[in-house]
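Person: I have long wanted to understand how a fold can be written as tokens. Underneath my words sits a plain record pairing an amino acid chain with its backbone structure tokens. Those tokens are not coordinates but codes from a learned vocabulary of shapes. I should like you to check that the lines agree and flag anything odd. The protein I mean follows directly.
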Amino acid sequence: MTAPLDRIRVGSAPDSWGVWFPDDPQQVPWERFLDEVSEAGYSWIELGPYGYLPSDPARLTAEIDKRDLKVSAGTVFTGLHRGPSVWDATWEHVSEVAALTQAMGAKHLVVIPSFWRDDKTAEIIEPPELTAEQWAHLTKGMERLGHEVKETYGLDIVVHPHADTHIDTEDHVERFLDSTDSDLVNLCLDTGHYAYCGGDSVKLIETYGERIGYLHLKQVDPAILADVVKNEVPFGPAVQRGVMCEPPSGVPELEPVLVAAQRLGVDLFAIVEQDMYPCEPDKPLPIAVRTRKFLRSCGA
């Protein structure tokens, strides 16, 4: 019998239903996502791209309450490595999302750094490596964001290492953590993205445990990943090839990750995200049901 992972709170997200954008004809309607995520046995959800779910707090509260759902976090994209000139525009976007996240009773804001490669066209927009000055802008900007979000909205920011961004590989993640204040900035460890970029999630949890504030559960298909790396395939097309796969068929193994997280002795959200944009509308629900069953078998 697997020991219960009683500090892990499992949820899912619009991403597991193929949702990447606020409005897109290839995505399922938000009502269907809410119905199906509840039917699959999850009680926690993320907001997904701002504007996908209703942004009026009273309406959204009514919709999630009737499905016995609760919100764990909102998500924002930022380009803070570009320096103080982007702060005002960043804060305007963050404030919108943070206000709704706070209104829904959630405590976390997932912060994703901007892409250096366009996820639709694959065009390289910026160099993959930051200069020393850009690193300073990024780390100081994230600390400022963490402080302002906490002061204004009472939320903790958790920065999400992500493929095709400047916080991706083990070296970049460690440099980011070593350069930021743990009182202001912690990590949303996405097991799939970290594996995609060559990192070891269990090692990261065991080494930087006090900085792990949130988890995204995801796996990569090693065979597809090898081809993606070899041919330098951008993240968007890699997802369309199925690089992010249904657990437990990929890597990393999720049970050791969850056990390592449980050992930290703190309550952590573990939100399932299986990148599937775009996907057939009937595909997500059966996967979500099987994934929830699998996570229960791990004790979560």
In short: Residues 11-297 form a domain with the TIM Barrel fold (CATH 3.20.20.150).
